[in-house]
Design a protein that fits this description.
Length: about 475
């Protein structure tokens, strides 16, 4: 972006930054699973040492189909498997190390867990993704940068060529080597180039150019999550510099700051640099740990806790990556399964009837017939309403044709043409004909789920008070949750 532009030209340019096709497809998935499973499951640890004997890996009842069914029950659309964690143990029979399932008694040494999960996902209608830890505590070449990068690329190539379509390659930057540990310089550009060559539709997440980390592992989300951010958040040189000797986990937290504001007008204007589309993913575990621990069987997140993360992530212009750790049998524990079913049932119930679909709708103005306000009431996401270019304030009014009680409003921008809305309010019409505000929000982006105590009215008005160049809206939904309230 040229920061010598006049203010109007500058904001118009910022408003037109949009996602790639791969980023758009990823965003539309909304909710998907992480599966953390390796030798750590059998040692009751979170981080392995790399010295574990492969003989300990022997899940007695492993069923990838059970994992997939649990994900589908919750309404998830994909699954990412930890194919190799920091201990270096490979869940597939890699040709470049002996530290794999082939050295274990599981399936008599003939198993390939990556294949089983990929096949189960394909059969169950889920997309499949892979996690490959750059930090490897077992591999002898780790720390000899050139040799290890060659080794890592070999392993990455195996995962990208043998298991069908991959929707995501997930890299983290964990490295607990400490000040006297090995120093490995990762060849990120070579990793990215190989992924683009072999799986061009896959997003590269967290330590990558397509998807950024939200900034914590607790499921906390920002009030305003911008997908358009300064380009330095994607700076590989800074990532490389700060990935060395990080003792506390993902180095992405050193890049994707925990600041509450990453993309407001003030922030992007003050940065004075190029802007990019770099959306956020919210990752957390259904239990305190990322791997299974029997001591945590009574600490599965409650339905209310999971709903809160879902509303903040999927309903806050991010995606929700929920970790599910299988136990030593190779099954997701029944308590986790039950909670996932509850979550899916709740979401399906809440969003099954959209009161807005039968509404009469009008707007303050419309650009042209192609962008009629009626487009916000369709199921299509490739069409949208917008006012005239340069109109940054606008309103939409919905007449539900009868009084309705509701406590959820879903708004969706047409992000294919950028992220525009900066501040909005929702109002209901009182019996005396006046309007009463019941919700105030900031950004919308791909999806905003507005949650509030139950209200009742026939007419609802969305007022957009601040936006970039001109707002867009591709969808509006009005719902009543059985729970009511927040």
């Amino acid at each position: 972006m040229n920061y010598e532009l006049q203010p109007v030209e500058w904001i118009k340019s910022a408003a037109q930054i949009s996602p790639s096709e791969r980023q758009l497809r990823w965003q539309e998935m909304e909710f998907y699973a992480f599966i953390h499973f390796t030798v750590n499951t059998f040692t009751d640890r979170e981080w392995g040492t790399g010295e574990e004997d492969p003989s300990i890996f022997n899940p007695s009842e492993l069923s990838a189909a059970q994992w997939v069914q649990a994900c589908k029950a919750a309404g998830m659309k994909g699954l990412i498997l930890t194919c190799k964690h920091h201990d270096g143990f490979c869940l597939w029979p890699s040709q470049f190390t002996a530290h794999t399932v082939a050295a274990s008694p599981w399936r008599n040494g003939t198993g390939d867990l990556v294949r089983e999960v990929a096949d189960a996902c394909r059969e169950g209608g889920l997309k499949f993704g892979v996690y490959l830890s750059p930090w490897d505590r077992h591999e002898a070449t780790y720390g000899d940068s050139e040799r290890y990068n060659e080794f890592f690329l070999h392993q990455l190539r195996e995962l990208l060529t043998n298991y069908g379509d991959i929707f995501c390659v997930w890299f983290d930057g964990a490295c607990g080597e400490g000040p006297n540990g090995k120093r490995q310089v990762y060849d990120w550009e070579a990793y990215y180039a190989l992924i683009r060559e072999l799986q061009p539709a896959a997003v590269i997440s967290v330590c990558g150019p397509d998807v950024r980390w939200c900034g914590n592992e607790a499921g906390h989300t920002r009030e305003s999550e911008w997908s358009v951010v300064p380009a330095h958040m994607q700076d590989n040189e800074k990532i490389q510099e700060q990935s060395q000797q990080v003792d506390d986990g993902e180095f992405a937290r050193r890049i994707n700051t925990q600041d509450s504001d990453l993309g407001s007008r003030e922030v992007i204007r003050s940065q004075g640099e190029q802007l990019i589309w770099y959306p956020a993913e919210v990752n957390t575990s259904i239990r305190p740990g990322w791997f299974y621990h029997a001591s945590e069987d009574d600490q599965v997140k409650t339905l209310e806790e999971l709903l809160a993360v879902y509303y903040g992530a999927v309903g806050g212009n991010a995606t929700f990556l929920l970790n599910l750790p299988p136990d030593t049998r190779g099954l997701i524990h029944k308590r986790d399964v039950e909670r996932l079913q509850e979550l899916g049932d709740e979401l399906r119930t809440i969003f099954q009837e959209n009161f807005a679909l039968q509404a009469l709708v009008k707007a303050s103005e419309t650009m042209d017939e192609q962008h009629a306000v009626s487009e916000v009431l369709t199921e299509r996401r490739d069409t949208y309403w917008c006012p005239l270019e340069g109109t940054e304030q606008a309103w939409i009014e919905l007449d539900l044709q009868e009084e309705r009680s509701f406590d959820r409003v879903v708004l969706m921008e047409h992000i294919q043409t950028g992220q525009r809305i900066e501040r909005f309010t929702l109002e209901l019409q009182r019996a005396d004909g006046g309007w009463e505000e019941f919700y105030m929000g900031t950004v919308v982006g791909y999806k905003r789920i507005c949650c509030f105590p139950q209200v009742t009215s026939r007419k609802v008005r969305l007022s957009i008070h601040e936006s970039r160049w001109c707002p867009t809206l591709s969808g509006v939904g009005i719902y009543l949750s059985e729970r009511g309230g927040l």
